[in-house]
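Hello,

Our lab assistant flagged a job as stuck in the queue for most of the afternoon. It eventually completed. Since we weren't sure the result was trustworthy after the delay, we are filing this so someone can double-check. Below is the sequence as submitted and the structure that was eventually returned. Let us know if re-running is recommended.
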Amino acid sequence: MSKTAITPDQIAAKLTQPGPKLSTKPADRLPAPTTEQAMTLTLDQLRPYDRNPRTQRNAKYDEIKDSIRAVGLKQKLTVTQRPGDDRYMISDGGNTRLTILNELHEETGEERFYYQDCHFIPWQGEINVLAGHLAENDNRGQLSWIERARGVYDSKRMIEEEANESISLRELTRRLKELGFSISLSHVSKMLYTVEHFLPTLPLTLDSGMGKGQIEKLISYRQFCEECWERCRAYWEAHADDLGEGEQWANSVIEGDFAQAWHDEMTQLDHEGQTEFRWNIVEDRLKGMLHDHTGLHFNPIDMAWKNWFTVRKHARAASEEEKADIWTTVDSELERLRHPQERHLYPPKEDSSKGSKTSSKPSQKLASGNPSPDADETGHSESGAEGYHDDLTFEEGQTDLSPPAAPKANERGVPTPGGVDESAQMKEMRAQLAKLEQRNAELEAESQKPLVAPPSTGSSESSGDDLAGLLDSDGFMQEHNPQPTRSPEEQETLVDDLTLSPYEESEGHRQLRHWQAKEHGEEAIDFEAAALKSVPLMSGGPVAPITDLWHVPAWRRNARDLRMQIGEVVQALAGWADIEVSGTSEIIRLNARDGLGYELDPLGDNPGRRAQLIWQLLAGLQGDIDPMLPAEISLFGELVGSHGTDSDVCLPDGLFIRVFWLTRLIRVLREVLAEGDPQ
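-- returned structure --
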């Protein structure tokens, strides 16, 4: 049986029929490499990082463009490829260079700009790319504060999304460091605070390049306002059952939103191109905001403001009593808002009437014929049998700083001196008071004794000639003033010559100073009076005003107060040298508990001449200079102006005086420490 022969047409049909269908889709491009390698890419295959933290144009853009135009790209672009993307993306910085390459290729058409040798790294994750851009730009110092803050905020969000849980700031700092972006914990905290509280309110100012110092100051201003607001909220919530006449302010604070009030006030100060605030305006606006929403008067707000920033400045040295005293004026003002008809003293006076019985005697009338404000509806008064006495009315020669009159022994609730109802502590205090009064009387008696002329040893004529003009009619020595009699114009000229810069002392402060000196058995010195018979010196200013070059009051002769005074002088000198100084500074830290009142760390790179001289001066006073800085003895001569031609490093008169005052305070501190004062 013969086989069927296959014709040529059948063979051709078999060869031309379609083959089996493919089960996979054809690949239109190669997959991304899995290892690091070099590759040559075109500009069409590259694109910038779409989440680049830099939002502002590089300040050196034109310089970089001229360099690339002349010699090409010296440093390879580092690229990666996001899964599913058909183009390569800049990985660790280089977005500015890629933009310039595109511009140059469009302008010239040269292929040397179109083809680029790149370094490829496999895809590791969004957070890795973002951290790479932050590290690269931060190392070059090319990111503004808000650009870094946005990058840190986005990094935190990406890490939390990946871990599906929130992380602490310390953990965020550690993770960023592992990814190659080193940043301190304090900076992370401030950056996140900036994005959360300042970016929605001050976008124009932040994008204009506001720096770290301005941000830190603004943070402190907001924290004070928020604490004051919460203080008022807590007060009104605690007195919800008896709001008195303060219901309006209670509702304003409790139902109000501090964040919204802050935003409404500060958004008016946001301007394009602004990098620094006029802080006196900011301070006034914020105090006005607190006044409008809380009802507090400006004076209590201002006093609390000063106390708060003083305690913040000396955070390590501030006592618990000082911290508790911050809001005393605010608490007293809140009481006034609740009961405005009552008198509220500062500091608030403790209520001594609790548990006492109301006097049954009728109250006496005031001069105007009106009854005492302490009288009840029946006409009875709680002010005692002697009638009503106004605490704000002073007798002749009495001031608000004068000690109160001693209560009579037979007054209700006052123990009889030496009686059985008096405690041992009170008896001891009375004994000490009696000794002090006796000693004070002796000193006053000695000061009033006239000086008797010495007995004559020669003839009466010579004696009369020698003592002519020194004895009065009774034979006693007259008061001798070695200074010549000056006219009012001469006295005014003398005071002006001894005043480097004026220091306006309030009358209340002057009275307080005199009272404290009297309590310690000393005589307070007033510049205007002392200038006519001695040589004091006045140098005012915002920090450490000076009215005497030598005298340190007894009440300030303790280690802690002396260190705080030293810190104020150091702050004035450092400010002149543009050195940051505070309780947490990295160069000069104030410390009122140890040492001389300040601690030094090395200066940064390329410090100015002023900074070198002031740092070495402070280090020399500690006995520990920096060998990396000039250490010749002539450095002090440059500061005081005894030699040298650079007038810019010569201390002004006001600071030169403070250098002398600084050494005086340090010597007194060493004396106090040698006597065993641990404080």
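-- support follow-up --
The delay was a queue issue, not a problem with the job. The result is valid. Confidence is low (pLDDT under 50) at residues 352-402, 407-414, 453-484. The chain has 25 helices and ten strands.
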